[in-house]
Amino acid sequence: MTSFTATGPRRERSSFKDIAHLKNLGVYFRRYALVLSISIIGMLVANIMSAIVPLLMKTGIDSLADPEIEPDIIMPAIAIAVIVIVRFFVFVVTRRIMRRVSIAVAYDLRKRMFNHIQYQGAAFFTRFSTGDLMSRTINDISMIRMVVSFGWVNIISFFFTVGTGIYFMATLSPSLTAWVVLPLPFVAVIGFMMARAMFPYYRDQQEAMAAVTEFTQENLNGIRTIQAMAQEEQEIKRFSAISTHYAQMVYRATRFNAWLGLVMPVLTSASPVIIIFYGGQLVLSGEITIGTFTAFFSYMMMVVWPVRMIGMSLSMFTAAAAGTQRIFEVLDFEQEIKDSPIADLPTRTAGHLAFRNLTFSHPGAARPTIDGVSVDIKAGETIAILGRIGAGKSTLLRAVVRLIDTPRDTVFIDGIDVCDYPVQELRRIATMIPQDPFLFSTTLRENLTYDDPGRDDAELWDAADAAGLASTVHEMTHGLDTIVGERGQTLSGGQKQRATLARGLVRNAPILLLDDCFSAVDTETEDRILSGLARLRNDKTTVLISHRVSTARHADRILVIDNGHIAESGTHDELIELGGYYADLAAVQSDQDEDRARKSRLLSNLDDSDVIEQAVEVTS
Ligand SMILES: Nc1ncnc2c1ncn2[C@@H]1O[C@H](COP(=O)(O)OP(=O)(O)OP(=O)(O)O)[C@@H](O)[C@H]1O
Ligand SMILES: [Mg+2]
User: Fold this and answer.
1) Alpha-carbon distance 546 to 521, whole Å?
2) Which of 393, 400, 403, 610 is the best mutation target for the ligand 1 pocket, counting ligand atoms within 8 Å of the beta carbon and taking the most?
């Protein structure tokens, strides 16, 4: 059995100030101000009703104890019954409103989080992992919901109950009231201080929860790799460590909270003792009646309960403050790619793509990933980009669709800066098919009509045909209605790649950017795809990244990217003539007799050319 002992939380700053994070929720409270005011009035009414009950009991008891008064127990009994019933309904309505508001606030926040995340760029996703974001959207928002539904109600009812209780007690006996409430400020202050100390415990607990979610999420994503590498036991051990840490944090927070629960009753037990001693004497000396004495007990219970709970209520606030801080850390993250479109965009895009001295560095990188790239791609041209692994090919295509924060005046479509297009419109004009194929866990048809459910089958088949996918789909029992599983796992690597290619093609965009989309298909299929592409895109701009000369050779122009700049540029024949990287690659990948000699010469020189190393890797 694991022992859940742990040292105290880190206290790098005052936890009292952290409550201020809750002010971020103000907008939500204002949104539901009307219903909240109604429920506050409801609470006030319910409280006053509760305070009248002891008075009625006092009337009944006094009429029994005092021989001079006619005994009257029926009227108080009926009145109490009526009050209890009415109070019940007021209470039900009030709680119902609270619950609905709390659900609405959680809903609003969760929606805001999701919307915010949708438009984020690379920096955001480097800063927050998937699991962390999931934990924040689920767990932290639940904490906030607790405060909205209970926490602040407890605080308001604290003031109401204590206020009405003390007021009614004071009307009966000011001196006894003074004695009874004397210990309460101490109780409240101690409760307050303990709650204040609670914040770091909750924050650590939430962070530990996030770690569990994060780890589980990554594990599930990589389960195949983990199993293929036989790392299950290792993963179980790592999970156990993370999970134990979470359990320790929960234990620590709960233990601290339990202390609050234990200390409070001890502190508040002073009040009944005072009533018995001092109140009893007042009864004996005839200063108060026995009815007043009994009523005091009821009022004392009424007042002490919320005072006792104040610590817990405040700790709920501190937990929510921790949650709010974590939520707004995400919401306050400024969007990298800002949409600042100009007003008059042309209605038709020809597809002329130009890079003008584009330089881009990934944050923290030692040297620029793209280093002064200038190239003009005419409308309707087909361009192939080749280059070593990590040369910057994908980054160059990402710059076009602003998946990286492209600097101004560097990338233009039809002479207009890509930064001047609305991002959505830009990505409609220039469709990029990313290097790692991703499919949604639904049917092939829904994947192909993902951005436009209105597409007819003829269009889908046309795209599938051009992507070399049609025959595969025909062979499937359910055809286009085949469900592809999570991330397309029921398809082969090549099928998945062709399906994403078809999804890109069907958009029929003026500019199509293919990031290494034929790497997992055989050369025969590749030929079929290339002729399909030529048919579908003969007058449209197409840029394709490849590691294969067989793919690139048909392009109008070939660019070789090396270390972020264009090293070679020209047609297949021109680059072969040039005798550089492209020519080497062509030789290594070729089976033609005339290339054999060059190939063996290159292979024998492996140590001085890593170009060849990579070329061999690609060929094999
Ligand atoms: N988000 C990132 N943060 C930091 N560096 C990055 C990031 N993405 C890519 N890089 C770096 O930028 C360089 C270029 O990456 P890029 O993906 O453009 O290469 P590539 O030419 O497409 O390679 P490949 O042929 O392997 O796909 C690499 O060195 C890579 O490590
Ligand atoms: Mg790449």
Assistant:
1) 12
2) 393
